[in-house]
Amino acid sequence: MSPLAAGDPSLVMSVSEQVLFWTVGPIVVIAASALLFAKRAVVTACSVMVTMVGLAFLYVGLEAPFLGVVQVVVYTGAIMMLFVFVLMLVGVDISDSFIETIRGQRWLSLLLALGLAAVLGGAVWRASFSGVAGLAQASGGNNPGAVAELLFSDYAFTLEVTGCLLVIAAIGAVVLTHRVRLTAKVTQADRARRRVRDGLHLTPPPAPGNYARHNAADVPALDASGQVIEDSVPEVLRMRGQVHSLHGLAQDLVPGDVPPDEEVKP
Amino acid sequence: MTMTDTLIAAGALNVSPAASPAASVMWLVIAVPLASAAVLLLAGRRSDKWGHILGVAAPTVSFLIAAWGLFDLLSRPANDRIQDFDLAWWLTNGIDLDFGLRVDQLSLTFVLLVTFVGTLIHVYSVAYMGHDPDRRRFFAYLNFFVAAMLLLVLANSYLVLFVGWEGVGLASYLLIGFWNQRIEYAVAAKKAFIANRIGDVGLLLAMMIMFSEFGTLRFGDVFAAIAGVASWDPGHATVICTSIGLALLLAACGKSAQFPLQSWLGDAMAGPTPVSALIHAATMVTAGVYLVVRSGPIFEQTPVARLVVLIVGAVTLLFGAIVGCAKDDMKKALAASTMSQIGYMMLAAGLGPVGAIFAIMHLVTHGFFKAGLFLGAGSVMHAMKDQVDMRRFGRLDKFMRLTWLTFMMGWLAILGVPPFAGFFSKDKIIEQAFVPPPDALWQAWVFGAVALLGAGLTAFYMSRLFFMVFHGQARWTDDQHPHESPPLMTGPMIVLAVGSVSLGLILTLAGFDDYLAPALVQAHHGEPVLNAYLIMALTFVLVLAGAGIAWLKFGRASAVVPELPPAADGLVRAARADLYQDEFNHYALVVPGQTLVAVTTKTDDAVVDGAVRGLAWVFQGLGGLLARIQTGFVRSYAAAMLAGAILLMAIVLAVWI
Amino acid sequence: MTVSAYLLLASVLFVIGTATVLLRRNSIIVFMGIELMLNAANLAFLAFSRMWGNLDGQLAAFFVMVVAAAEVVVGLAIIVSLFRTRRTVSVDDENLMRH
After folding, report:
1. How far apart are CA B46 and CA B33, in angstroms?
2. From B1, B539, B610, B638, which residue has the greatest number of CB atoms within 10 Å?
3. Distance (Å, rounded) from C-alpha B449 to C-alpha B425?
4. Contact B200/B253 with Cβ under 8 angstroms?
């Protein structure tokens, strides 16, 4: 309780800041707790995204607008997306069961978490803080500029090293996910040969022809005799039974209604 | 001789008093056989052709030097015959352990006996071991034995005596187990050596007590110190003298096969017969008697030890006699006889200085006739294809005349029939046994009676042996052609037979007791409780009775001797089994020893090793428990790391804040 | 109160992240917990930066973000390659380093 006893006014949050803190704070905590309590992995990913965005708000409130934006761009936009991609790769629907398989782990974790909370909280409790100076002077009105100035002068070396680190990380990712090809790569020629061998349709599927009235994907093409070509509609649509019937599109092209020779018009 | 002068000039050889030339070369009698043994062993197979000749020559040379020494000694006045030589050896201040020789009447007697009988047996061995490919090695060992025995008797201190003592023990082991291809012979050699070793503990104890009390081991100095024992504190004097005496007696028992260390002598007959004749009849087994007699001044001061000597001698006397009555193995019967006769010698030695003289005399005559008997037994074995079972002999007198005659001489000598050698020595012992010590009349009756009884039993079993072998009906196994032995064998037997006949008379007439007396403690003659002639007559009657019974049972032409040992009562069975000496040793010594070893081993294994193993088990258990932390689950490890991190943080914060 | 409020919030987020690492079995969720911990640290940095009145804290948070990005890249690559071989993303299935 020492901070308040010092009576330093700068240590008290302004009203607006308080509002920001007390709204975003709980949201962040609740979203973070989804990490512990949500069953499905996708849900946790989305909750963590919410946490990140909330934290970005807090950063801005802490007079660090540049970092707030970077937080959204990098963390939420890149890192969490990566997580989601991997989740999709692994299986979007996966969910953990909450049955704990290691004996005593739950109690131990609870104990340790409380212990950690106690230590950290105790440290914060017992610390005495000097007055909050604020970043008005240091930023000089241009927070990104001030950060950039510092970055490229005092921390230039760290910057370069971090750059190397990123390069290495990229290389590492490529190396780790590299799959050695066990079979030969199937080339175009192989595919063509296989098609010939298997007696499949060799040419590309037919597009809408001369007498087409519509070029939508679900409208089938007609052959020379006016029959519907089934293959011209993508298989997915065919499976789903979403092939558009020709009624209402070209009555004069409905099969069976066209006299063979008289319909030819200039 | 120049070497001796050089050594004296250099101060290394210390002679006191002025040495005679013969005495100063007495070390050669030891050196020559020793060198011969070394040559024969080192030269190896190359010397097989001439090895036996060198082997015979060595003790002959020793005998000649000894004979010269005797003449020289006799030429000196009677009170000036003890000569000591020292070779400075342990040149440190305050420790008196010089190596030296003593030439006096007692040692010369032994030297002559050993070399003379030894030479004869060496000659005999040339023919007896003629077919053995290892004959050269045999002679090497025999020569080594002669050298060691002579060192023993020529020693002027207990330390040098001990060197010779061990040497003869080693020689005995090597010779008993000479044909060590047979396991039982090697085991017999080991048994002899171990029994000897137990005796050696006694000798070592005695030497240690002497050294700590007197600071010297030399005979002259020890006896001089003992003579002054009257000025000591009486309790202390008794304890010291009695313990030295008993320790020396233990040593003598081991070497001379006296009760309770007598079990090895019967088994020692596994060696070749010349070995039995030389070592286990004439010389090595008498080393114990020599030790007791030489240590006379010590025993003189301790009546308790003397009484124990007497008891040991008497018990062994009867023990050997009883066992000898039931043995069918010729050599084992002779071994039992040796044991018994040495019991006589021990008895005599325990009677005091006068008895000691007769002990030595009996020792000398016994050497002759027992060696002769053994050589005769060897001759019989040679004729009967190395058999020893007397039940399969009989009627050999017709076929082996010379052997029969020489054997008869030895037999009559051991019986103590006048005028043969044994009569002069053994009767004197029996008479002396009836002389009571100043304050114990019962001793005269007890030991005298035992000696008499022993004489009768000796007569019985020796006659049994003689008649079973040479008389009665022929009970041979098939395919036997007994024949007389070659001259190289019969020659020594004849010489020994002559000695058996005449030596006793010669020694008595030449005044052996007066000759020997100055070397021992001065003594007074006591009077026996019975008339001397009465004792003589009783002895004669008992001898006749024993021989007569044996004649009736075994010697007559009509006597029936079963070819297999017949069933008999308890005493005979016990005697056949050596009065259960091996069983006694086993249960009294071997079993406790083995139990102790087993207990120690188990304790070592369970307690000491168990402690180490237990410690290892504890740590293994701890490690196993700790290894359970390695579950493989990342989350467990994460929890552990977090716990550590929290702890560290708490500590840091507690210190700082 | 300003600083301590933000610090307490950061602590809470940090503890939640730790608990996630200890309690959840899905490795991707565990990874997200780690990201949460890093964010909590960022928050603390920024709170102190405002307190001291210089931008060093913001730069530190910046670098933390960069490194976290790199780390996510590599970490997810690892998870993907593990999935390809073992068809599982459970951390409990990776338990070969045991006694």
Report:
1. 19
2. B539
3. 17
4. no
Place of tokens 């025995």: B149
Q: Which secondary structure element, helix H or strand E, spans residue B87, and what is its range? A: strand B83-87
For residues A22 and C8, give the distance between their C-alpha atoms in angstroms, rounded to a whole number: 13
> Which element (helix H / strand E) includes B15?
strand B13-16
What tokens appear for B202 in the block? 């006694």
* Crossing angle of the two packed helices B158-176 and B287-294, in degrees rounded to 10: 170
Would you say A121 and C8 are in contact if contact means Cβ atoms under 8 Å apart?
yes
Question: CB C95 to CB B634 under 8 A?
Answer: yes
CB B319 within 8 A of CB B343: yes
Domain ranges in chain B are 1-177, 195-569, 584-656
Cβ-Cβ contacts under 8 Å for C43 (sequence gap 6 or more): A55, A58, A59, A62, C6, C9, C10, C13
Give the model's confidence band at B221: pLDDT under 50 very low, under 70 low, under 90 confident, else very high.
confident
Q: Which two tokens stand for residue B122?
A: 């060496």
State the pLDDT confidence band at B561, using cuts at 50, 70 and 90. confident
Distance from CA of A80 to the nearest CA of B (A): 23
Contact with chain B for residue A163, Cβ under 8 A: no
Q: Do C99 and B638 touch (CB under 8 A)?
A: no
Of A44, A59, A170, the CB nearest to C46: A59
Residue A19 burial (CB count, 10 A): 12
Q: What percent of chain C has pLDDT over 90?
A: 72
Evaluated on CA atoms B621, B626, B629, B632, the torsion sign reads negative
* Count of beta carbons in the 10 Å neighbourhood of residue B140: 25
Collect all residues with Cβ–Cβ distance below 8 Å to B354 and sequence separation of at least 6. B432, B435, B523, B524, B525, B526
Q: How far apart are CA A260 and CA B95, in angstroms?
A: 151
Q: If you classify domain C2-90 with CATH, what class do you get?
A: mainly alpha
Q: Looking at chain A, which runs of residues are DSSP E strands?
A: 221-222, 228-229
Quick check: helix, strand or coil at residue C67? Answer: helix
Please report the DSSP string for B330-388 in residue order. Answer: HHHHHHHHHHHHHHHHHHHHHT-HHHHHHHHHHHHHHHHHHHHHHHHHHHHHHHTTT--
**Chunked mean pLDDT (size 10), chain A, 266 residues:** 50 85 95 91 93 96 93 94 92 78 87 94 85 80 90 94 96 90 87 87 71 76 76 84 75 56 48
Q: How far is B639 from chain A (nearest CA, A)?
A: 7
SS3 B582: helix
Q: Please, are residues C22 and B642 in contact by the beta-carbon 8 Å criterion?
A: yes
Given CB atoms, is A108 within the 8 Å cutoff of chain B?
yes
Q: How far apart are CA B657 and CA C91, in angstroms?
A: 38
Q: How far is A112 from chain B (nearest CA, A)?
A: 6
Contact between B134 and B53 under an 8 Å Cβ cutoff? The reply is no
The continuous run of DSSP H or E covering A145 comes out as: helix A143-153
CA dist B314 and B317 (Å) reads 5
Q: Where are the domains of chain C?
A: 2-90
Top pLDDT among B100 and B648 is at B648
Q: Which residues partner with B216 through β-bridges?
A: B96
Four-point Cα dihedral A136, A141, A147, A148, nearest 10 = -160
How long is chain C?
99
Indicate the DSSP class of residue B157.
Answer: B
Q: How many CB atoms lie within 10 A of CB C13?
A: 26
Residue in C19, C83, C92 nearest the CB of A101: C92
* Euclidean distance between CA atoms B641 and B634, whole angstroms: 10
User: How far apart, in whole angstroms, are the C-alpha atoms of residue B149 and residue B112?
Assistant: 12
> What is the rounded CA–CA span in Å between residue B129 and residue B371?
17
